[in-house]
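User: Show me a protein chain along with its predicted structure.
Assistant: Here is one chain, sequence first, then structure tokens.
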Amino acid sequence: MTKHRLAAGVFLALAFLFLSAGGAQAQWVFVARKVIGRVESMTQSPQPNTPRYDVASVMLEANPDKVYQTVLATIATHKDYKIVQRNDASKNLEVTNGKLSAGVHVVALQDKLTQLTIASVIPPNGPSPTSFAVGNVLRICAEMKVVCTVESPPPQ
């Protein structure tokens, strides 16, 4: 009788663990679905004679490899964009247009869920960073034929 109780207890513990892990995964997917296509951005406030950062990020319901290939194709269509550094394994790029530089990172969250992040450094007294990082995220969204929206544009 003790062996049966032990086996039943182990079975119930494993079933509980499996179901709770599945529930956590389902909650993660639910939360992710709420933010798909919403472009979030962050820009450092201007300081005299100091470069500032600019970051834009979006979650896309798309295959990470397809997003990365779209990024590469989009860069190739802009004559003034040049890839300075490229790591296909980690889907990281460094790109410049001669005036501004940006890092692009494509992260696989699931098979069909991808985070695209573009970060740049704006030189002191440089142009508005919003048009660079957010504009390029929106350009990739358009190329992917995915609707992306900017929730709250950063102050300029």
